[in-house]
Design brief:
- It is a single chain.
- The chain has about 290 residues and is mainly α.
- The protein has a domain of about 150 residues.
- A 3-stranded mixed β-sheet has the order 1-5-6, with helices on one face.
- Helix 6 crosses helix 8 and helix 10 crosses helix 11.
């Protein structure tokens, strides 16, 4: 799945899509390498097998090669979320994208950054035989936009989030890297037009055949019941993590052997990080050794 990166929370909101379709357990995200060092969260992401890139193509290409090999050998369904823009729309990313557009005689986008194509073309071309499709996700916020986790913690939530999903079967995708790069750039032009239309009208415009399919789905599925199931799942997930955090904090404060366990695990993680490049690199090395 590829998507526009409006805020730093887009990937978290996309969990709702994966939850609705029962695919969250296979979800993996491509992140910038600096996030690997975020306490606790970075370790969890490594344990979940998320991909981290350094934006240095020589290094990233070697790492992606190992990732692709591991993903194919694992036999698990591949569900990757990639933000080709490489940064969200806030901050310096927009200025850099506009400068790149001017230098290369490209249109200046209002709602997007120009996509980086190297990672996308490499992943699609090397995972081609193990992918069913490429899903193009467009996310839009018609009311308030929440930019960061800090705002979430302060109680500010987006009132509405709209997703537009378009499925591209692999049989329709180009095979050549240059053609894939051109495809992504063209897709981003359409995405900019789609977002401009959305912010004018307040909703995504669907082709006639898609509207007909949506009506048939609504007739065949009890949407209210489905929403209730999804809300229950999300509620129990949130409840679990709140209770788990409270219980863990209490155990650390009151039990000496839990404190020692946390200290030893933290030291082990630091050693793995320093000598092997992190938990994920250790997993890739063990997988490579096992298949040698």
């Amino acid at each position: 799945m590829i998507g526009n990166h409006r805020t730093e929370l887009d990937w978290a909101y996309s969990w709702m899509i994966y939850t609705r379709f029962g695919m969250l357990e296979h979800f993996k995200l491509v992140l910038k390498d600096s996030l690997r060092h975020v306490p606790i969260w970075g370790y969890v992401c490594q344990a979940c097998g998320y991909l981290f890139v350094k934006r240095n193509w020589q290094e990233d290409q070697l790492l992606l090669a190992k990732h692709c090999k591991h993903l194919k050998q694992s036999g698990a369904p591949i569900q990757l979320l990639l933000f080709p823009e490489g940064a969200d729309l806030e901050g310096s990313g927009k200025a850099k994208s506009d400068a790149y557009a001017k230098a290369n005689n490209l249109p200046i986008y209002e709602h997007l950054l120009h996509p980086r194509t190297s990672g996308f073309t490499y992943l699609v071309s090397h995972l081609n035989d193990h992918l069913d499709c490429v899903v193009d996700m467009t996310v839009a916020y018609p009311k308030n936009i929440v930019y960061s986790f800090k705002e979430i913690f302060l109680g500010n939530f987006p009132e509405e989030i709209h997703f537009h999903l378009k499925r591209h079967p692999m049989s329709t995708m180009p095979d050549d890297a240059k053609e894939l790069s051109a495809w992504l750039k063209s897709d981003w032009e359409h995405k900019e037009t789609r977002l401009a239309q959305f912010y004018r009208s307040g909703s995504f415009e669907l082709p006639t055949d898609a509207q007909s399919q949506a009506k048939q789905i609504h007739k065949a599925i009890d949407i209210g019941a489905l929403n209730l199931v999804v809300h229950h799942r999300l509620f129990y997930v949130a409840l679990f993590w709140v209770l788990f955090t409270l219980a863990t904090s209490f155990a650390i404060l009151t039990t000496w052997y839990v404190r020692w366990y946390v200290v030893l695990m933290s030291l082990a993680n630091l050693l793995i990080e320093h000598h092997l490049g992190g938990l994920l690199h250790l997993e890739l090395q063990l997988a490579e050794t096992a298949t040698a």
